[in-house]
Write a structure and sequence with these properties.
D-amino Acid Aminotransferase, Chain A, domain 2; eight-stranded mixed beta sheet; alpha+beta; D-amino Acid Aminotransferase, Chain A, domain 1; 17 strands; globular
Length: about 260
């Protein structure tokens, strides 16, 4: 079943159906989305903070209004079924606006194949939102190469994925690209690293070329799919697999989901 979307604008302190004439000439300045499954969500506080701080950084003037918009959006999410809502700070004809997309959740998938992106088209690589269209095109190019996700390099080093963050294992140590590289501070990746720290699992960062991941277990993580094992890299390094570890950590991450507050009526 295809995902459906209800588009709502924030006007005069409430969410209202979007006028058709407002769809054009829209630029996304900041965006945040997350999975709500059966009324529960993972790390909602981190998503809230990232969205509000990103919107302010990108020029939206009004923290209190952003907070009210966020709460209204949460209240609009049904507590049954699976949803993948998106909060947006946008510009419409150069005027700042807030917009909420109530979307049914797409199908979640398991292991994936990745391919190296030929270019890096990002304009604001540390903010989720401004580069969504460009990243979608990168992912489509990866699909033409037989993959489901594109890996973006910065000066030859693994930086980010087009829709995921990348984590890898060397023995019993979990690694991520350094945050100084141009990449979004992924909520899902932060949560996985937090679980590792709580379990006493060593966590570190390293700047690596794709070839240096030869023989590593590579994960692609995001808010929709959680942890997915990368089974192959098109024209890239050969990757190891650890299905038992991947399954255990997927379960750990899912167990951290907490119910949203009751809907306000």
């Amino acid at each position: 079943m295809a995902a459906s979307t209800t588009l709502l604008d924030w006007r005069d302190g409430e969410l209202v159906a979007l006028d058709d004439c407002d769809v054009a000439e829209t630029g996304v300045e900041a965006a945040d989305s997350f999975l709500v499954a059966g009324g529960s969500v993972l790390a909602i506080g981190l998503h809230r903070t990232r969205f509000i701080e990103s919107a302010i950084e990108r020029g939206f003037d009004g923290r209190a209004e952003l907070e009210a918009f966020w709460e209204a959006g949460l209240a609009a999410i049904p507590r049954g079924g699976d949803w993948f809502p998106r909060f947006e700070s946008v510009t419409v004809r150069d005027a700042p606006r807030l917009r909420f997309r109530l979307r049914t959740a797409p199908e979640r998938t398991g292991p994936i194949v990745v391919a190296t992106a030929a270019t890096d088209p990002r304009r604001a690589p540390h903010v989720k939102g401004p580069d969504l269209e460009a990243l979608s095109r990168l992912r489509q190019e990866a699909q033409h190469a037989g993959a489901q996700e594109a890996v973006i390099l910065d000066s030859g080093r693994v930086s980010d994925g087009s829709t995921t963050a990348l984590l890898w294992w060397r023995g019993n140590t979990l690694y991520a690209p350094p945050l100084v590289l141009p990449r979004v501070d992924s909520v899902a990746a932060r949560t996985v690293r937090g679980v590792a720290a709580a379990l006493g699992v060593p966590v570190d960062e390293e700047a690596v070329a794709p070839a240096e991941l030869e023989g590593c277990v590579l994960w692609a993580v995001n808010a929709l799919h959680g942890i997915r094992a990368v089974t192959a890299w098109v024209d890239g390094p050969s990757l190891a697999q650890d299905p038992a570890r991947t399954a255990a950590w997927r379960s750990r991450l899912q167990a951290l989901a907490r119910p949203l507050q009751p809907r306000v009526r």
